[in-house]
Amino acid sequence: xxxxxxxxxxxxxxxxxxxxxxQKPSVLALSDSGQVxxxxxxxxxxxxxxxxxxxxxVLLDLHLPGNDGFLGLLExxxxxxxxxxxxxxxxxxxxxIGKARACGAAGFLSKSMAADSILQAVKGVLLGEEFxxxxxxxxxxxxxxxxxxxxxxxxTDQQLRVLRxxxxxxxxxxxxxxxxxxxxTVKAHVTAxxxxxxxxxxxxxxxxxxxxxxDPAVAI
Length: 220
Hints:
Blueprint: E1 4-7, H1 11-22, E2 36-39, H2 42-51, E3 57-61, E4 63-64, E5 67-68, H3 71-79, E6 84-89, H4 94-102, E7 107-110, H5 115-126, H6 143-152, H7 157-167, H8 172-179, H9 183-197, H10 202-210
Parallel strand pairs: 1-2, 1-3, 3-6, 6-7
Antiparallel strand pairs: 4-5
Helix pairs in contact: 3-7, 7-9, 7-10, 8-9
């Protein structure tokens, strides 16, 4: 059974990362390379975690189909709070790393890191440590970002999914179709989202959620 789950939609990167983690299986106490699994989307990752109680660590890319930013991290942490999540990104701007910390990640891996460095970072997180790029661990987490993450974390799993759909401009009817629920249920979720986020309308909710967005113009 998988012990580490790589969530990334780029097969070449997934394969290279798995190779980095399994070239010295004894370092991570892996019995074989089969203990590192893949998911290409957040939904697939959640389904795998629901079926597999042995996963200790998720390596999460910030840019995935249907999820572009930190809402996916919040959803993972809310659904599986005992599983550590390491964020992976080619965008190692301090603001991105700060958002990862505010949203409950156990660390941050840059896609430009050397294989040995990735291996040691993963080893530390599996032992209960955190891993942040040099100097970032000492930077105080932005209190406003922490407050936004706290408010969003009050949402149920389904409300988080609805919020992600609102972010990409989906109408209630489209959200209902995508999530296979009634339009009335979507409206009820939207009302609850406004209340929990302390906003008045969809525009304000999306602006708030977009504070946890990653700039798509920057390398992923």
